[in-house]
Amino acid sequence: MIVARPQSFRRKVNAAMEFRLSEVELPPLYCPLESAVHPHVRHIEKRAVEWVESSGMCASEREKAWVVATHSADFFARFAPVADDDRLLAAVLWVYWGFGFDDARCDSGPLSGRPAQFNALAGQVQRACETDSAVADDRFIGALQDIMRRFRSFAPPTQVHRFAQAHRAWLSGVSWQIGNQAAGRMPGLDEFLAMRLLSAGGHPTFALLELATGAEVPDRDLHHPSVQALTEMAIMVASLDNDRHSLHKELSHGQADQNIYTVLMAERGVPLQEAVDQANVLRDRILLRFLHLHDRVRPTAGTDLATYLQGLRYGVRGNNEWGMRVPRYLSLGHWPEELEHTLPAWADEPSDRRPGPVEQAPCIAWWWDSDVG
């Protein structure tokens, strides 16, 4: 069921969440997955920051500081800890670019509430992702073309094409999100989950695994229902975790109109704390299914597929280790500062062990189908 609300509803939700945020207890995360980070992450970060500074994609020193404060090198170095340095650098550059584009053109800025204008730009951006001959005057396009040239210099066309299609999926999800923002429309849970798979940017992020590691997963393996389900579940868990990590940032910027908490609050009429608890249950049930299915698929996987599957595991864990520390989230919207590393709080047990599909979410029920695994 779709739940629509006027613009005033968004303001009411933001006000309610901000008022209660200090009283909300975020439960520890259950994440029994391996932790790893690339050994040369600091050197790669230095090279990446130099690129950000010279790329021309940042309009001001403040904007550049926010991009650098994403620590995108630390983020993706946890997804691909065994990658070649230059391959990893290229992947990291896209993550920095993606965060910069998201902040300036998606979450805020002049196009964040203007879907027609954003869609026109998204078309130009996507074409620049697909061909070096595309020309446009937006400052993010030249930087993206430089990244894509790097990908083409070392990766076979199949992997570059997969990334470009994943990039298109992300932009389509962002277009949906911006359309909702412009209309003051709150989606229902099932629609939100289906489109959050796209708008969160998980598809291009995990498509970077092949580019960074050099793995060439055969089509028959990558597109097998079980592997597609594992990919989607990894994206969904990471997306829900990011809604948690970014809660303070979004509230401080007045951007909390669409996340798992506001969706549950609107659809089920529950307060923020209950929405937090329900979201954690949903997330843990998806993660348990991911673990179960992974353990069935991994033993018969070839070398390249096994590398990809391990990258999914590293990514879910690494996304949390990064998200619990990065100034982008912990600075609460203030000018980003280096913060001391904090120790993540991990749960020993999942919040819910019920098997079977999540209720009221038919769009993801197929992850539990018997023919998936």
From TrEMBL:
It comes from Streptomyces rectiviolaceus. Belongs to the terpene synthase family. Its EC number is 4.2.3.-. SUPFAM superfamilies: Terpenoid synthases. This is Terpene synthase. It is an enzyme of class 4 (lyase). The lineage of its organism: Bacteria, Bacillati, Actinomycetota, Actinomycetes, Kitasatosporales. InterPro entries: Isoprenoid_synthase_dom_sf, Terpene_cyclase-like_2. Its cofactor is Mg(2+). Keywords: Lyase, Magnesium, Metal-binding.
